[in-house]
Amino acid sequence: MTATAPALTALAQGWCALSLLHGRIEAHIERALQSRHDLSVREYSLLDVLSRQHDGEGGHLQMKQVADAVVLSQSATTRLVTRLEDRGLLMRYLCPTDRRGIYTNVSDQGLQLLAEARPTNETALREALAEAAQDERLAPLVRAVEGAPVLAA
Q1: Dihedral over alpha carbons 59, 63, 64, 65 (to 10 degrees)
Q2: What's the pLDDT at 58?
Q3: pTM of this prediction?
Q4: pLDDT tens per residue, range 55-90
Q5: How many Å apart are CA 21 and CA 85, to the nearest integer?
C-alpha cells in the first residue's frame, strides 16, 4: 500500500515545520550564548551533558554516548572536546578500571561557565518558543514541546 499524495504532503509539511522550529530555536540560543558567554549551542550542550556524569557505576559516558547525547558524530565530538579542553573547560583522564578508556570531565572553570550560561540558555529558549508560538504553523509544535515530559540525559 502506498501513501496518497495529500498524506505525503502533510507529512512533508510537518517535517518542514519541525525543522523550521528547531532552526529558529537553535539560532536564537546560539546568538545569546555566543554574545554573553562565548559558547556555541554545541559547546553548551557538551558541557551540560558532561556535567551530569557521576562517579557511580555507569556514571561516566564513553565518547559514543556523548556524541549521541549532543547529536554529533564521534569525530566531531572529539574535536569539540579538544577545543573545550584547550580553553580549560574540560579535562580528560584514563579510566581507572580500563586503561584503554578515556573519560572527559568538566573542569571547575567549565562548571562556572556552565552555571553562568544556564539562565541565558533557558531565557533564550523561552523567548524563541514564545516567538514561534505566534506563527500558526509552529504553534502546535510549540505546545507539544512545552507539554513534553522531561527526558533523562
Answers
A1: 30
A2: 73
A3: 0.85
A4: 777 778 888 888 999 999 999 999 999 999 999 999
A5: 31
Gap between the Cα atoms of 38 and 88, Å rounded: 14
Residue 59 contacts residue 31 (beta carbons within 8 Å): no
Cell of 55: 562517579
Query: For 90, which DSSP code?
Result: E
* Residue 150 DSSP class: P
Total number of residues shown for the chain: 153
Number of helices followed by number of strands (H, E) in the chain: 6, 2
Three-state DSSP string of 37-62: HCCCHHHHHHHHHHHCCCCCCCCCCC
Rounded distance, CA 45 to CA 51, Å?
A: 10
Crossing angle for the helix pair 5-37 and 139-147, to the nearest 10 degrees: 70
- For residues 30 and 13, the answer to whether their CB atoms sit within 8 Å is no
What is the spatial distance between Cα 87 and Cα 119, in angstroms, rounded to a whole number? 21
